[in-house]
Write a structure and sequence with these properties.
The complex is a heterodimer. Chain A is α+β, with helices and mostly antiparallel strands. Chain A is built from five helices and two strands, in the order αββαααα. A two-stranded antiparallel ribbon of chain A has the order 1-2. The radius of gyration of chain A is 14 Å and the shape is elongated. In chain A, 45% of the residues are buried. About 8% of the residues of chain A have low confidence. By secondary structure, chain B is of the alpha/beta class. Chain B is built from twelve helices and 13 strands. In chain B, strands 2-8-7-6-5-3-4 form a seven-stranded mixed β-sheet, with helices on both faces. Chain B has a four-stranded antiparallel β-sheet with strand order 9-10-13-12. Chain B has a two-stranded parallel ribbon with strand order 1-11. In chain B, strand 5, helix 6 and strand 6 form a beta-alpha-beta unit. The longest helix of chain B is centred in the middle third of the chain and has 39 residues. Chain B is globular. Classes of the chains: A alpha+beta, B alpha/beta. Chains A and B meet through strand 1, strand 2, helix 2 and helix 5 of A and helix 8 and helix 12 of B.
Chain lengths: 126, 405
């Protein structure tokens, strides 16, 4: 199967690959099938940094790389609005690879939910 | 070095230039129909076909008359299973095969089952991919008409104890079909010594042309009969109608002749390259696992799983090397390799497998380049893998509860 140039680019030059250090604030959620770890750093409701690690095919790696690129600079509300179809369109994913974009959207949603949970928890303990 | 490097010689092989040379006169100059009995064009074609039949027979220690030409191994497998089941339906309808056969056998068996024409026993294999001859013996019933077990597996290269199975088949009076597509021309095949009654193989796996294969059908002890699956002019002793593809057959014959002459030297050379590839990769990369049998294996085959990285992304990172993976992402069904699963390889490791197929035209330089490249890409992808990170941190991956998806 031929990959789109953008998938190949993200695969060869992944953006924001890695993990935050343990003592840094990061949230993440593993997803099954392919495994995607997505972490975000938030200041004043804005995502200031994002990192990913992915076990999966080239399209899954490209989807998560693109997701981190899009997350940076977005407010939490804006980030909620990222749809897997946006990723499909941007990367020109074929139908058989759409699940990779679903995984990326789920990873975004999970990271946001995890952040919210921790934020609520902190508020409660204050 | 020329790119891309072809290391997928189980899927197909490039044609040997000597084979093409043998074929060329039979396209324009000597174009006759081998079934034309009344003129020189036909005689010339028939003579070429008979020469090829002898070359092919010699490679597998069969009589030339026992070679039935088909379009390839898939057709041969179909013809063997369907033809035997139909011909011997008075005797029984039970087939014994294994779970790691090629799809051409498995799906044919399933199709016969679905139509109510056969009951099928699918034997499991051991961790190295070999079937136990005793399990074959135990599975035989008075309704068993056919045992169909491959010589060498197309993914992991494991070679089955065919001779022992053949002996059991003889003793029990059951016909033995062997899909030898990956083995013929690569390792010595002797249908007499191996007790094989029907055998499928094809030209394009042995540096011959695509579109031509053969089914060996034993003529005596016992005389095997099969019901034709295609009606027509009654070619190939009535077993497979259709005008013979003379140029392809000539190429098939030449390819077999070359294999017979060069197999001993070639298999030693390929095995040395394979061992070099295996040692180079596995010494450098922790948690890389050999799939298949360490010794009962095709000389050019190497199948390795690289923990924590996914096969398709590995292939994507080595675009300049043509390889194959057991990863679901490379298959249309999104299921990982059923062969690796049958060996008890876990889903993750099945997804992480790469098959290297070394052939006649590969060089040591290509092998060394591949070693370097595999180490590089696996290391890069492991850095990118959350599973590798967790494993390094001491998390037991089996204990992780993944979000349902």
């Amino acid at each position: 199967m031929a990959y789109s140039d953008k998938v190949v680019d993200h695969f060869n030059n992944p953006r924001n690959m890695g993990s935050f250090k343990k003592d840094e604030e990061g949230v993440g959620a593993p997803e099954c099938g392919d495994v995607m770890k997505l972490q975000i750093k938030v200041q004043n409701d804005t995502i200031v940094d994002a990192k990913f690690k992915t076990f999966g095919c080239g399209s899954a790696i490209a989807s998560s790389s693109l997701a981190t690129e899009w997350l940076k600079g977005k407010t939490l509300d804006e980030a909620q609005k990222i749809k897997n179809t946006d990723i499909v369109q941007e990367l020109n994913l074929p139908p058989v690879k759409i699940h990779c974009s679903v995984l990326a959207e789920d990873a975004i949603k999970a990271a946001l939910a995890d952040y919210q949970k921790k934020a609520d928890h902190n508020e409660g303990t204050k | 070095m020329k790119f891309p490097i072809f290391l997928d010689n189980h899927s197909t092989t490039p044609m040997d230039p000597r084979v093409l040379e043998a074929m060329l006169p039979y396209f324009i100059e000597k174009f006759g129909n081998a079934a034309s009995r009344n003129h020189a064009f036909g005689w010339e074609a028939e003579e070429a076909v008979e020469r090829a039949r002898k070359q092919i027979g010699r490679l597998i220690r069969a009589d030339a008359k026992e070679i039935v030409f088909t379009s390839g191994a898939t057709e041969s497998d179909n013809l063997a299973l369907k033809g035997v089941l139909e011909m011997y339906k008075e005797k029984g309808n039970h087939i014994i095969t294994t779970s790691t056969e090629h799809r051409a056998v498995l799906d044919t068996a399933k199709s016969l089952e679905a139509k109510g024409l056969a009951t099928v026993t699918y034997l499991s294999v051991d961790k190295q991919g070999r079937v136990d001859p005793q399990a074959v013996r135990n599975a035989i019933t008075d309704k068993t008409v056919l045992i169909s077990i491959m010589l060498a597996n197309n993914e992991i290269g494991t070679i089955n104890p065919v001779q022992e199975i053949g002996k059991i088949a003889k003793e029990k009076g059951v016909l033995f079909h062997c899909d030898a597509t990956q083995g013929v021309g690569k390792i010595p095949v002797d249908v007499q010594a191996m007790g094989i009654d029907l055998m499928s193989f094809s030209a394009h796996k042995i540096y011959g042309p695509k579109g031509i294969g053969a089914l060996y059908v034993r003529k005596k002890n016992p005389r095997v009969r099969i019901a034709a699956q295609m009606d027509g002019g009654g070619h190939e002793r009535g077993m497979r109608s259709g005008t013979l593809a003379v140029p392809l057959i000539v190429g098939f014959g030449k390819a077999c002749e070359l294999c017979e002459q060069e197999m001993a030297a070639e298999s030693t050379r390929l095995a040395a390259m394979r061992d070099r590839l295996q040692a180079g990769i596995m010494a450098a990369l922790e948690e890389s696992y050999l799939n298949g049998h360490p010794t009962h294996r095709l000389p050019g085959n190497l199948n390795i799983s690289f923990a924590y990285v996914e096969g398709e992304s590995l292939l994507m990172g080595m675009k300049e090397i043509a390889l194959s993976s057991g990863s679901a992402c490379t298959s249309a069904t999104l299921e990982p390799s059923y062969v690796l699963r049958a060996l008890g390889v876990g889903t993750e490791l099945a997804h992480s497998s790469i098959r290297f197929g070394i052939g006649r035209f590969n060089t040591e330089e290509e092998i060394d380049y591949t070693i370097k490249k595999v180490i590089e890409i696996v290391t890069k992808l492991r850095e990118m893998s959350p599973l590798y990170e967790m494993a390094k941190e001491g998390v037991d991956l089996k204990s992780v509860q993944w979000a349902a998806h």
